Amino acid sequence: MSNAEKKKVYILDTNALIQFSLWLPIDLNKAFWGKMEEALKNGVWVLLDVMVDEIKYSNDGLKKWCEDRKKSGLMKNIDDGHRERATEINDSYKMIDETTGKSTGDTYLVAYAEANQLTVFSREAPRKDNNDLHKIPDVCKELHISLIYKPKEFIEVIGYKN
Fold first, then answer.
1. CA 32 to CA 20: how far, in whole Å?
2. pLDDT for 1 beyond 60
3. Which domain holds residue 40?
4. Interacting residues of 18 by C-beta distance below 8 A, sequence separation 6+
5. How far apart are CA 136 and CA 21, in angstroms?
6. What are the distances in angstroms from CA 119 to CA 81, 84, 99?
7. Overall domain count for the chain
8. Lowest model confidence (mean pLDDT) among 1-15, 39-53, 147-161
9. I want to staple 113 with a disulfide (CB 3.0 to 4.6 A). Which of 20, 50, 118, 134 is the partner?
10. Per the domain annotation, does 3 fall within a domain?
């Protein structure tokens, strides 16, 4: 199968997951979250451990939803190769705030997406100024990693219809 024939597999940034949980709360939108789980089981998208680790609060049940998927064996983990590549990415495109450590997960997301030829779904905007830290869209562009910003494509791909 050629790359053109391969179907896209997505990896979600934490901000996309959090925004889904805000727009479509889990307890009020069982159909949507059921489609999310079905798509996860079918390999349409990847739930990455470091993205779940960034969810600090309950977020309308999102943390528990993710942890339940982890218990079901549906969460992927980064490995030492991804960590090494994330360090290289940050060395080339400064993403991590050295004071707070913020955005460490972003480097892992990009490294994992690159290694597995995944399409990144992030709601993060590109950096505004060349002196700012690089953002996911900036680095994906530099590394030729497919990226989507708008939720519509992902929602359609998981088969959710309202």
1. 9
2. no
3. 10-157
4. 55, 59, 62
5. 21
6. 19, 20, 29
7. 1
8. 1-15
9. 118
10. no
Which one, of 21, 1, 15, 36, lies nearest residue 117 by Cα?
Answer: 1
CATH code at 37?
3.40.50.1010
Write down the pLDDT at residue 58: 62
| Number of residues that make up the chain | 162
Q: What are residue 97's phi and psi, to 5 degrees?
A: -70, 115
CA neighbor of 48 nearest in space, from 100, 101, 122: 122
Residues contacting 110, CB < 8 A, separation 6+: 86, 89, 95, 120, 136, 139, 140, 143, 145
pLDDT of 162 higher than 90:
no
CA gap 20, 71 in Å, rounded? 21
Share of the chain above pLDDT 70, in %: 96
- Please give the Cα distance from 137 to 147 (Å, whole number): 7
The residue behind tokens 């709601």 is 123
Of 4-13, 33-42, 99-108, the range with the lowest mean pLDDT is 4-13
Query: How far apart are the C-alpha atoms of 162 and 109, rounded to whole Å?
Result: 30
Burial class (CB in 10 A: 0-12, 13-18, 19+), 121: buried
